[in-house]
């Protein structure tokens, strides 16, 4: 029985045609990378202090300087490192104190909350959704909620768009999702209030998965089996490029509405790709549209400089081997079969835990680079840049030492680096940054390895590489839940602590590496 993969091996597994199609299909991932990490700047929290309405009048009356005005309105407090800093959530109630002794002991002065709003430092961020809606102090949980709801959109999009692409085709669903992402992103720019912003961001997250998930499936279905691992990594590379571009755009555009508009309009660039991206021949075959699939494969062979295998094609069509969801024994397998066998259930639990921890720490580090100290934009850019050597290293080492040992070393090493940042004094920024980047290197390499390993560790009939190479429902839900469960409180809060102080996530990173020791080793899918 001739399989479609045999056809691909004959016409070229990764020839000129596939390289061109992968490039075009992955370009929209640039927009996805920008949207996924946008909250690092859209919801940035500038330095702030309470506004005291009476302070300006009193300053004029008593001829206070700016420094004296600050001393008379904002109390001191200790941060987590024991250093004295100005309180960003409390102020003195000047209407209830004796101002005759301006430099006296203020320990007995009444302190109140910021009932008149906040004054923000606009030297770095001109506007942000956090600033516009005063999402600070007791209300900073709203920022966490906004990011959580965004990830809920990612979850739902992961579940629905894979099935939609099965029904209506990879190409159609990918471009529809891109158009809807463009509309939702631009609409977010004009959100009249915080509630509308949260709803529209939910829709953005929904469409992001429609683009990122489906374009990977489309690309993976036109390359040969030996190149699918590389294709998955290439899609991730475009995502990271978008991540880095986001930092550059945010540096140039310091207002959140204009920034959101800029990254959203990038979707317009991908609309003309409709004319050059072709449908997946594998999907067309599965739907019985044999002639359309043949035209594409013939074009593939011509572009790659090979002959179209007519005899093999006819044998494949005659045998009706069109990637049925049921194997030859007519028994139907689903993702739930991963839990029926104790051995597979154990493997699934370990893989699930690894996915969860990886996403927790990845988004914690990526979204909260501003808490590391130093320049926010440089830190964000470097956090993306470090992923390229991590991806390259992960590919090289797994070919020599398999999946398990490199994954353990990357996870444990990254976890240790993250935990060490907790003990570094705040004035040693270079050391903190170095440790954080080591942690990001480890988590990024582990991210790529676990993606490859997951597809190899399961039986073929229920592997993410099977069923048109698309992740089965449980796999998509698992990844989406892990994406949703991330340290959003660090990302949206105004804490000055480095993101790795989410020590639960960092310890989890270390533990997941240890747990992986008990998983089955694989070598190139073996």
Automatic annotation (TrEMBL):
One of its GO terms (molecular function) is transmembrane transporter activity. GO terms for cellular component: membrane. It is found in: Membrane. It comes from the Eukaryota. Gene3D superfamilies: MFS general substrate transporter like domains (1.20.1250.20). InterPro entries: MFS_dom, MFS_sugar_transport-like, MFS_trans_sf. Pfam families: Sugar_tr. This is SLC22A3 protein. It comes from Branchiostoma lanceolatum. The lineage of its organism: Eukaryota, Metazoa, Chordata, Cephalochordata, Leptocardii.
């Amino acid at each position: 029985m001739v399989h479609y993969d045999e056809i691909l091996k004959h016409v070229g597994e990764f020839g000129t045609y596939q390289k061109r199609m992968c490039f075009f299909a992955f370009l929209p991932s640039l927009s996805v990378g920008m949207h996924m990490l946008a909250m690092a700047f859209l919801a940035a929290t500038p330095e702030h202090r309470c506004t005291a309405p009476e302070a300006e009048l009193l300053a004029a009356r008593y001829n206070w300087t700016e420094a004296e005005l600050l001393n008379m309105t904002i109390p001191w407090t200790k941060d987590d490192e024991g250093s004295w800093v100005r309180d960003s959530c409390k102020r003195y109630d000047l209407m209830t104190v004796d101002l005759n002794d301006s430099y006296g002991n203020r320990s007995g002065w009444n302190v109140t909350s910021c009932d008149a709003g906040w004054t923000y430092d606009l030297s770095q961020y001109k506007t942000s959704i956090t600033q516009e809606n005063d999402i600070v102090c007791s209300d900073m949980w709203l920022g966490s909620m906004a990011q959580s709801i965004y990830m809920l959109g990612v979850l739902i999009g992961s579940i629905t768009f894979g099935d939609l692409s099965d029904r209506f085709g990879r190409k159609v669903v990918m471009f529809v999702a891109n158009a809807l992402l463009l509309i939702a992103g631009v609409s977010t720019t004009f959100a009249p209030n915080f509630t509308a912003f949260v709803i529209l961001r939910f829709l953005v997250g929904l469409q992001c998965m429609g683009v990122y998930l489906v374009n990977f499936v489309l690309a993976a279905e036109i390359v040969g089996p030996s190149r699918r691992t590389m294709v998955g990594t290439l899609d991730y590379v475009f995502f990271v490029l978008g991540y880095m571009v986001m930092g550059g755009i945010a540096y140039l555009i310091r207002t959140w509405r204009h920034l959101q508009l800029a990254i959203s309009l990038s979707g317009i660039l991908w609309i003309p790709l409709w004319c050059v991206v072709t449908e997946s021949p594998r999907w067309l075959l599965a739907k019985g549209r044999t002639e359309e699939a043949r035209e594409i494969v013939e074009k593939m062979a011509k572009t790659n400089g090979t002959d179209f295998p007519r005899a093999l094609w006819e044998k494949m069509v005659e045998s009706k081997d069109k990637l049925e969801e049921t194997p030859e024994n007519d028994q139907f397998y689903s993702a739930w079969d991963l839990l029926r066998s104790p051995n597979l259930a154990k493997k699934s639990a370990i893989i699930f835990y690894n996915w969860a921890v990886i996403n927790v720490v990845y988004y914690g580090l990526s979204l909260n680079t501003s808490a590391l100290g130093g320049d926010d934009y440089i830190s964000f850019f470097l956090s993306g840049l470090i992923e390229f050597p991590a991806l390259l290293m992960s590919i090289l080492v797994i070919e020599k030492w398999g999946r398990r040992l490199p994954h353990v070393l990357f996870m444990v090493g990254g976890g240790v680096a993250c935990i060490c940042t907790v003990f570094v004094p705040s004035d040693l920024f270079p050391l903190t940054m170095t440790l954080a980047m080591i942690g990001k290197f480890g988590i990024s390499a582990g991210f790529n390895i676990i993606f490859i390993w997951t597809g190899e560790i399961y039986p073929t009939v229920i592997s993410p590489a099977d069923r048109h190479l698309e992740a089965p429902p449980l796999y998509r839900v698992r990844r989406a839940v892990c994406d949703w469960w991330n340290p959003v409180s660090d990302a949206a809060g105004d804490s000055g602590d480095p993101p790795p102080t989410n020590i639960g996530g960092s310890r989890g990173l270390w533990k997941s590496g240890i747990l992986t020791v008990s998983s089955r080793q694989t070598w190139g899918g073996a």
